[in-house]
Amino acid sequence: MTLSKNRIKYIRSLEQKKNRKADKVFLAEGPKLVGDLLGHFSCQFLLATSEWLSRNQPLSVTDVTEVSEEELSRASLLKTPQQVLAVFRQPDEETDVSVISRSLCLALDDVQDPGNLGTIIRLADWFGIEHIFCSPNTVDIYNPKTVQATMGGIARVRLHYTPLPELIRSLKDIPVYGTFLDGENMYGQSLSKNGLIVMGNEGNGIGKEVKSLINRKLYIPNYPASRESAESLNVAIATAVVCAEFRRQAAL
Amino acid sequence: MTLSKNRIKYIRSLEQKKNRKADKVFLAEGPKLVGDLLGHFSCQFLLATSEWLSRNQPLSVTDVTEVSEEELSRASLLKTPQQVLAVFRQPDEETDVSVISRSLCLALDDVQDPGNLGTIIRLADWFGIEHIFCSPNTVDIYNPKTVQATMGGIARVRLHYTPLPELIRSLKDIPVYGTFLDGENMYGQSLSKNGLIVMGNEGNGIGKEVKSLINRKLYIPNYPASRESAESLNVAIATAVVCAEFRRQAAL
């Protein structure tokens, strides 16, 4: 099978959310990422160089096209195409809020940058956080830049898009954390093994309504304490530092 | 003064390192960032909307051009231009290795992504790390994407480009840390208030020669311990989690 112009056009159309949503599919590229996802998601079709194909047999994908590097680069959204590109089916998402009472989960309130979301999914995977609840305006998990930045974490971390105020109001006696410049030094707090850590938008932080529902306000100390300088951390960085501290305490 | 085509061309040429280097200048955009940098770097010229100019008087910049949003967007490298764009002079860099014996410093071994470098500068600023030593192949600090991602940290954190093996060999009895999958759990280690933390390239980690010179190998524990899943953290994320732990211990 050869690579048709229509297929190239279709692949490139998946940069747009509306096209991904219409067909319930998403794009992933590169041997490491595609390799990770093949075991987790149903693959609609795959393009790969002969080199990649020879190293990956048998392959349980029906629709496979062998392509040259040059053909791959015409379909790829990456600056440097990497041997293989695959279109996967988006899994059906089920929201089970009870996971928040049993485990530590994240909530993202309008995170906008695809790279930040992907990086957060990757670090959630590292820190064993399996569920992330996202406000409806949070960037799409299936944005190709997000998928790439997860480095495979998308196969193991579940995202649920749902209005956060309603979600938080439905929780009873479960700690809901957020980071604030006027919060309590997190190193002085006893942090739980379950509950929700809310992280906010890159420019505006956590929205007003969600903020009013947070019952444990944390502060990531800068150094030296009370030094006047940096005013904030990138949202993925702040998420990592907070998750690391929850997990350090959990392992004590 | 009106905005000439030549000036637009000049500004856009600063996306390339060779052009920045030739004139020893760099570009910054947006009210927050430009505002932070005006007090720290010599400004060669500045373009701004009347709105920004009316809010920022007096201004100690000789070469100022009032521009419309439309004119600004023709010069800007950002997707969404933000009121002001300025070209600053690169400061002369002096490398004083003795800071490593007195304070905690970072070393970056071929970090390639401009956004990662900018994010690392921003978090170094937060954690009071004032000096970062970079291998010569590390991405340029004056890359516009790096400058933007520092969120002003570039005004307070000094970068020194120098071969890392020679640098590390010149240090005597100073701890040199790095993170490795086979390192010691960092939470079980007594971490110093001085020394060097080495972070590696996005794909390949720390180079072989530098690795052999690291005397304190650390591991950032994943969770639950020994779970098979995520294989790595983004370099900026790992840097943040390590720096946070050094500073937590230092504040105890």
Explained architecture:
Two copies of one chain form a homodimer. By secondary structure, chain A is an alpha/beta fold. The first copy, chain A, has two domains: 5-89, 2-Layer Sandwich (60s Ribosomal Protein L30, Chain: A), CATH 3.30.1330; 99-250, Alpha/beta knot. Helices cover 35% and strands 21% of the residues of chain A. Chain A has eleven helices and ten strands. A six-stranded parallel β-sheet of chain A has the order 7-6-5-9-8-10. In chain A, strand 2, helix 4 and strand 3 form a beta-alpha-beta unit. In chain A, helix 7 (114-126) runs parallel beside helix 11 (235-250). The first copy, chain A, is elongated.
CATH architecture of the largest domain in chain A: 3-Layer(aba) Sandwich
Number of spatially distinct domains of chain A: 2
The DSSP helix count of chain A reads 11
What oligomeric state do these chains adopt?
homodimer
* CATH class category label of the largest domain in chain A: Alpha Beta
CATH superfamily label of the largest domain in chain A = SPOUT methyltransferase, trefoil knot domain
Helix content of chain A: 25-40%
Task: Give start-end ranges of low-pLDDT stretches of chain A.
Answer: none
Radius of gyration of chain A: 20 Å
According to CATH, the fold-level topology of the largest domain in chain A is Alpha/beta knot
Backbone shape of chain A: elongated
- Strand and helix order of chain A: HHEHEHEHEHEHEHEHEEHEH
Give the tally of β-strands of chain A: 10
Q: Largest interface, by Cβ-Cβ below 8 angstroms: which chains and how many residues each?
A: A-B, 37 and 37 residues
What portion of residues of chain A belong to β-strands? 15-25%
Distance between the termini of chain A: 56 Å
Largest sheet of chain A: 6 strands, parallel
Please state the structural category of chain A. alpha/beta
